[in-house]
Every structure is written in C-alpha cells, then in structure tokens.
Amino acid sequence: MVDVERPGAQQWVPGSDEGTAGPAGGHPDVDALRAAAPACRGCELWEPATQVVFSAGNPHGRVVLVGEQPGDVEDTQGIPFVGPAGRLLQKALDEAGLQRQDLYVTNAVKHFRFEQKGKRRIHQTPELAHMVACRPWLQAELEAVDPRVLVLLGATAAKTLLGGQFRVTKERGVLGPRDTTAGRFDVLPTVHPSSILRGPPEQRDEAFAALVADLAVVTEHLARA
C-alpha cells in the first residue's frame, strides 16, 4: 500500500510481560521497532514465513489502521496491504477522503500464517497465542506513533486490542474513546477488506460502500479536531 524505508538496526525486542517497555533512556521509535522485529521468536510463525512484515506509512500519522496479518503477497514483498485486500482498502480510503500522509498501516500479527497445499499457501486465521505473542510489538508501535484515531480492521485486530468478547459486527462504524490493551484511543472498528472479497459477488458493491462509510466517519472526525 505505502512503501517504507528500511532503517538501520537497533536491536530491541519487547518483553513478554511488559510489552511497551523500551531500552534504557526511552521508548523505541517505529524505525527501531521495524529493525528489531526480524529477531522476534515469540511464536512459531517466523519459521515458515518468508519474512516479518512490519508496517508502512507515516510513523507519526494521525490514523493507525490495524489489520489481521500479512497475506501471501505481503509475505513475499515485506510490506503490508499490497495484495488484493490492500488495493481494495486503498480505494476505500481514497473514496472516504483519508489522505495517505495521515496513515500508518500495520497488522496485529506480523508473520503470515498459512497451510501449504501443493504450491499454494492458504491463509489461516491467527490463533490467540499468535495475537498475544505479537501484541507487545503493536503496543509499542501505538505508543511510538501516538495516533489520533485507531481503525481496527476485522476481528483479529479487535480481539488483540479490545479483548475476545468484542464483536465488530455489532459496533462497526462507531467511533469513540475506548480503553485498549495499548492505552486509550479514539477507536473505530470496521470489517477487514478481505471479508468483502470473500463475500458473495452480488453483495460486494454494498459491502464496499459500507466500508467507505465507516472510514468517512474518521475523515469527519479529523476535520473537526
């Protein structure tokens, strides 16, 4: 979706108990986190994946969008939201009036979870253990970026930051202050764009319009801020 520079390394890995605790002298910035992430061995997903897929966009963006995990294309290229779902998301963001310079994009889980079937790699939804293992990275990212609005794309992002009882289908499109595992933010939950692509073709236009309407709530909120 948005290309990013690959900074020099500063090795730092969040602890399993205090996810936002940085090195002595302060908290790491996004560049330091991205450089350190390939060393993470918090769960088993690092081994079959091609690479860690960390984030893209403005590290001081007013809006952070959190997805589920990288897909097959993202795993190959090392950049989030560059596959079919990412292209659909970018179209929705454009139609909603959100500017790229305002956006930081990441995922709740940083490695591609898949099942190998012949030459194909079939997406598998991350388990709770994977969300928990990656949560310190996401917490540290949000502390470093300090966004004005947090957009949660789908159930995995919502469960990671709001707990397993939260249901996106019940509260999508409603923007307001919420306590998350990374602190208090103005949060807007909505669907993941991949759910639109998986849905019935005859319903995709309506589902896409609903996603645009959700994201437009963020645009209006930023205009009032």
From TrEMBL:
Stored Pfam families: UDG
Region (Disordered), start-end ranges: 1-30
Domain Uracil-DNA glycosylase-like: 54-216
InterPro entries recorded: UDG_Type-4/5 (IPR051536), Ura-DNA_glyco_family4 (IPR005273), Uracil-DNA_glycosylase-like (IPR005122), Uracil-DNA_glycosylase-like_sf (IPR036895)
Source organism superkingdom: Bacteria
Keywords: 4Fe-4S, DNA damage, DNA repair, Hydrolase, Iron, Iron-sulfur, Metal-binding
Sequence similarity: Belongs to the uracil-DNA glycosylase (UDG) superfamily. Type 4 (UDGa) family.
Alphabetical list of PANTHER family matching this protein: TYPE-4 URACIL-DNA GLYCOSYLASE (PTHR33693:SF9), TYPE-5 URACIL-DNA GLYCOSYLASE (PTHR33693)
Entry protein name: Type-4 uracil-DNA glycosylase
Organism: Aquipuribacter hungaricus
